Amino acid sequence: MPISQLDITSAYLHGEMDNIVHLEAPELLEEMLTRIAKDKSDRDTRNKAKVMLTHLQQGRRVCLLRKALYGLRQSGCQWHSKLNTALKGAGLISTNADPCVYVNKKKTLHSRLRR
User: What are the extents of the domains in the chain?
Assistant: First the structure.
């Protein structure tokens, strides 16, 4: 029986939040947004930075978190949920003994996951 293992280094950064989490704006956010707003590279990014900068200057110092971050209690759960959906969509089945271990009932799936 072939066994495969994955180690995804930035796994938690790929989980989307399914509940509302607000954070205080980081200390250097205003300075970084000012730099981005003055940059001449990408117009869309510049415009978004200008809007965010305006909000900060108006006193809106809270940010809505859309993606999971390391250190949040929800991060591991969010990542597992996303990975679980993808693996089950690929035909794998989680075991009763350990829900983080998946079994492949089809031989062709192993070759599809290796790509």
Answer: 1-19+70-115, 22-64
